[in-house]
Design brief:
six-stranded antiparallel sheet, 13% helix, disordered C terminus
Amino acid sequence: MRKRIDVAITAVMLLLLPAMASGDERPITMQLSFDCVKFEGDCEKIRLIKPPEDQKQLHKTESGVTAGVALKGSEINDGVINLAPGELVFVKIAYVNDSNRAVRFRAIPHHVEPQNLQVVAILQCLCLGETYTVPPHSAWYRILRVGAAFDMPAGSRFIATHILTSENLLPEAFAPAPHFHSHHDHH
């Protein structure tokens, strides 16, 4: 195990060297955007926020919370984040549902433009197989981690677009799995 860790640290250092040696200090500009396709809610209500320290837990998801809890932190204007090569940051996607009905949605795989930066963009975001539900008159949020790999060229600019849809959702609740009795259960 120790050897694997040493190899991983060496590999990371090798990736760091070109960025450190170049001396290029220009930030990498990432813009996170959300497109809504057949979305039950109002796409304009989706917010990107720099979460407070007490919410910085990767993939932390809370539904049915107050708008104050969901929107806690500082809003990220136009979804634009400046990064250094190798830098990862926590981001919160939040939605406030002020309607009288639940809003349900799922994510479709994100895409990065320009496409050649897809392999060096780091996006730990929404689970594709999960249906998210925001109850009426409440809010929802999820903590994501995004960034740029060490080998992303300084000064790069890219847009990472996430698509949200309310189409083809999994059922709200699955029927309980049947219990199968073996012949040993009846002794």
